[in-house]
Every structure is written in C-alpha cells, then in structure tokens.
Automatic annotation (TrEMBL):
Species in which this protein is naturally found: Paracoccus zhejiangensis
Domain of life: Bacteria
Alphabetical UniProt keywords: Periplasm, Signal
Protein name in the entry: C4-dicarboxylate ABC transporter
GO MF annotations in UniProt: carbohydrate binding
GO biological process, one term: transmembrane transport
Length: 328
C-alpha cells in the first residue's frame, strides 16, 4: 500500500511538473475551473476550446482546465473569476442567480420547448443580450453549453398526464420556483439533499424526484423509481465565462480567437451531452425502466400561469419571456 501511495504521489508530481513546463511555453496561461470530473461533457468542451485556441495562436495562449472542483465549488469559483483570481469558469446559470438577476428567468418551468429551442435562443440575439449582463459583474460570457433537461421519475406509476401527478410527493432542490411549480401541478414538493433521494424513494418517504437521464442513471435512482416521464420541465443553460480582468489583457485579435473557439466548443459539448443522454437512456431501459414519452405538455405549461405571474413581474422580464417563447 505504501508503494502504491508513493508511486501515485510520484505520478501526480510528475504530471504537475509536465503541466508547469507546458504552461511555461505559453505567453499566456488561462486557468479554467469546472466542478465536474475529467471526461464529463463540459470539461471536454473547454478542452476542445483550449486545443483550438492553442493551435490558432501557435501556442501563445494556453487554457489549463481544472476539473472535479479542484479550484472550488461553482459559486466560489465564479467569485474568484470575477476578481481575476481564476481566469475562466464553467458553471450552471443557476449558480449565477444571485449575481446576474436575468439568469433567474432561465430557470422558469417549461420556458424552453426542447433542447433545440434552447440552443436557438441562446445562440441568437437573446443569448447575446443576456451575455452582456455578465459584463456588469466583471465577467465576459463566451459560450453556452447544454445542461440537459430535467424530467419526473417515480416508483408508483406511469405519469402521462397532469392528473397523474395529483397528490404525489417529489423531491426538488431547495428553490422557491421548484416548490411553486410542484404546487401548480397539484403535487407535493419535498426539498431534501440529493444524497438522501435513493433511500427516501426506497422507503416510500417520497414517490419520486426529477432530473436528467445521466443523473437518473448514475445515481441509481432508476433502480427504485422505474417510471420516467419525459416532460422536460426544466432546461438550464451552462455558461463558459472569462474574467473581465483577464479578457482586457488580450488583444482584440486574441479575443476574437477565444470567442470563436468557445462557440465551436459548444457544438462539441452539446454532441457529447447528447451521446451521454442516449447512452444513459439505453442503460436504464435495459435495466427495466419505463420511459413515458407520448404526453401532451400543454396542460403542464398552462398550469404554470400562477408561477410566471409570481416571478415575471417587470415589463422587461415579461418582454424577455415573450421573446424567448416566440423564438422558433
């Protein structure tokens, strides 16, 4: 065991030396943080961006990716990026809610009809407009990644209509919008830590929860809640941002290279995410999960009127929501 430990330490030290040596060859090294593990679609997306930037700048600019929360959790690394301690960060829009208020609107239930609709919104004028809001908080938005779509799953029965949800108990994140969403659907929200969901479903404390395919798969929840309803009630974008302090040190030409590479990396990340979703779906189905896809979302969407009335209160917010909904 001592040999294994010392060997591992030696390998890590060697890797650090190689990384330091590689960074020394670059005129500019940008440190980028991600909470997800190495190999995860968001991490691989930023790596693709790094490769393109290094190639197009002939090695002058390097992006060093730190996965697995090595530099801290999302909210901490966002703050560090704002102050220029870290150069770049990849984080969910949800983690920006207290910093950039407009991001809260992107967490409204059923705001996006599909992942294609989400991409069309974020890659167009609306996404560009939202991106400018980050500059007021010392961040420059570079690219929008895909965080998947959250759907309901439970241990009791197939849910094919809004009536099927009545009275059921679902775990949700500690978020007022989520709690109000469940009430509007006639179900009961039960906020609890993610790590307690498996046993809570298994023991009947709750009937189910909600998340995307990969999380439904990797958490083992498919073992105790075999009915998965593809209602896609929530799609929250992911953002790759750079510190304005680091951005301002770059030439306009290098800024253009970073922007293009970031946007190209979004295509890579989204494809990797789609592949992961497909693999997870196939895995849970093979294990006995039942996927309910043929549902009419209209009643679900119509039930959200009181939720939107509560959270979309300003003329600016109402205009943005209407423009998002009108995007093809």
């Amino acid at each position: 065991m001592k040999y294994i430990t010392s060997t591992l330490a030696g390998l890590l030290a060697s890797a650090a030396l190689v990384s330091a040596a590689a960074a020394a060859d670059c005129e500019v090294t940008l440190r980028s943080s991600d909470t997800h593990p190495d190999g995860y679609p968001t991490v691989e997306g930023v790596k693709a961006m790094a490769e393109e930037v290094k190639t197009k700048t002939e090695g002058r600019i390097c992006i060093e990716v730190f996965p697995s929360s090595q530099l801290g959790e999302e909210k901490d690394t966002i703050e560090q990026t704002q102050f220029g301690v870290i150069d770049m960060v990849r984080a969910s829009f949800g983690s920006f809610n207290d910093i950039v208020p407009v991001t809260q609107l992107l967490s409204l239930p059923y705001l996006f009809r599909s992942e294609d609709h989400l991409h069309n919104v974020m890659d167009g004028p609306i996404g560009e407009e939202i991106g400018k809001s980050f500059e007021e908080r010392d961040l420059v938005a570079l690219a929008y990644y895909d965080g998947g779509a959250r759907s309901f799953y439970n241990s009791q029965k197939p849910i094919a209509s809004i009536e099927d949800l009545k009275g059921m108990k679902f775990r949700v994140m500690q978020n007022d919008v989520f709690v109000d969403m469940m009430a509007a659907l006639g179900a009961n929200a039960t906020p609890m830590p993610y790590g307690e969901v498996y046993s809570a479903i298994q023991t009947g404390v709750i009937d189910g929860a909600e998340n995307n395919y990969p999380s439904y798969d990797s958490s083992g929840h498919a073992e105790v809640a075999k009915y998965y309803t593809l209602d896609q009630h929530l799609m929250v974008p992911e953002l790759v941002a750079i510190s304005k302090a680091s951005w301002d040190k770059l030439t306009p030409e290098d800024q253009a290279i970073l922007r293009e590479a970031a946007r190209n990396s979004a295509t890579v990340q989204r494809q990797l995410w789609a592949d992961q979703e497909k693999a997870s779906e196939e895995k849970v189905v093979a294990a006995g999960a039942e996927i309910i896809k043929d549902i009419d979302k209209t009643p679900f969407i119509e039930a959200m009127v009181p939720v939107y009335d509560k959270y979309v209160t300003t003329p600016e917010a109402k205009d943005l929501v209407e423009r998002i909904q009108a995007t093809e």
